[in-house]
Input
Amino acid sequence: MSVAAIETEQLRKVFGDHAAVKGLTLQVAQGEVFGFLGPNGAGKTTSIKMLLGLVVPTSGKASLLGAPIGDRATLARVGFLPEHFRFQDWLTAGEFLGLHGELLGLEGQALKTRRDELLERVGLAPFRNKQLRTFSKGMLQRIGLAQALLNHPALVFLDEPTSGLDPVGRHLVRDVIHELRNEGTCVFLNSHLLSEIEVTCDRVAFIRHGEVVRVLDLASLNGNQSVVSICASGLTAAMVSEMARWGRDIQANGEQLTLTVHNEASIPEITRYLVAQGANVFAISPSRLSLEDIFIETVGKDGGL
Amino acid sequence: MKKIWILARMTFREAIRRRIVLTGLVLGILFLVVYSIGFRMIFTEISRENARDGGTAFALVAQNEMSNFLLLAGLYAVAFLSVAMGALLSADTLAGEISSGTIQTIVTKPLRRSDVVLGKWLAFAGLLALYLLLMSGGTVLSVFFQSGYLPRNLLSGLSLIYLEALLVMTFSLACSSAMPALATGGMVFGLYGLAFIGGWIEQIGAIFNNQTAVQVGIATSLLFPTEAIWRRATFEMQSALGAVLQMTPFVTLSVPNLLMVVYAVLYLLIALAAAVRIFQNRDM
Output
């Protein structure tokens, strides 16, 4: 078995008399897209900072890609997009990527090629000669994302990567995460946007008071508990009762039919059945059991305050 | 080593982009113009008096002394401006980058944190050298072309002024790794003022042979050796006659010895080591 991308054991950080992170124990496999969820002040950013060597842990152990945190050679294989994305705003977009590439040990043609590739990827190629201080929040986030990918990292930390982005920007981030997953890159995603986490992550950890309270496999969540809404005309009572073959909690209301299917894989079969019986199907949309529901159930309505 | 160089270049570029270099250049040239005009006016008066006196040897000596005095006055202003430049360049550099968060993408790259401190130090040392070269070079050349006067030991005098500016810049960098820019500024200029007044107490104490006063001066110099280094610089560059006659404020009566220069160099190195050390252990 290959080494874990991230492994922590009772990682703890105390500021004064306040424990920002009480004891984080976590394992993230290589190539996994891992969501880090928790209410404000749960210690998510502090945890990321400890893993990246920005903040020295008070106690506990952690390793990235098999090496203890703070190892310089390992940082050459890690990418990081910090929250708030404050960068050297007197640099142009091209210079900014050039500088960070050089700090990663890239140079010459390899650096130029990678820089241009990423400017193109995040849609900032036309702005390569503009100083970052003229950039909007969304543009800064894009250039920050490009910066995090310069070294084809094996592990990328994204701290709130979509918080300032418009829908187009969010879509871009989502696509980039999918690409990274396909390339076998491990993505550690810290986000408040549960819908974002839901569509991108393989697993999520819920954090409260700097401790992991629950780790959830989103794939298993999806397969078992999908709520399907069907919009169709010509539905008969027989059709509705037949739905019990594939699911439970069946509710019919005029042209609306919803049920919780045992398995998402049965949706095509349901569609075929309804069409064969003469119903006019306009839409079928499965939606997973909301991560938001699980989030509130896990961290509590008080948000862990 | 390579990473230090990359970061030094970055810092240099920052100084250019943020118009620090341009401001220094424009105001520096303005300073030199005003200084040259002032020198011209005074020197013309003296030359006229000399001509009336029939150009005696004494008159020529007086002319030389006046040139020396005016040159040191100019260099005193240059030294202060270089010190201020050094303090301002580095006061916000680490503190500012830590509080804004721009440091986060830098120190999570495969480099030593000391590379960041040393890179910035190198860039500031280069900027200060350029600034001092422009300002002191302009002052010295202005005096030379108008009066033909060149001070003694010019090179060692200017090197000492550079040491003074470097010392303040390095100390400010060390403070900046631990506290906010305003606190750093207050600290640096507070100590600079203390050393300044301590230097005068030492000087006046020397006139009256008051050992205690001299020791107070030495104590403040140990706390912050800027004024001592400046006085060593004037000692190097003052005219031989002026030293004997003790007639201008730039004549150094209680001369800081070479040990004080060595002390200042050590002080600088320790401040740099402290800057690195504090920055290495800081949460960001």
About this structure: Residues 2-280 of chain B form one domain. The radius of gyration of chain B is 21 Å. Chain B touches chain A through 23 residues (CB under 8 Å).
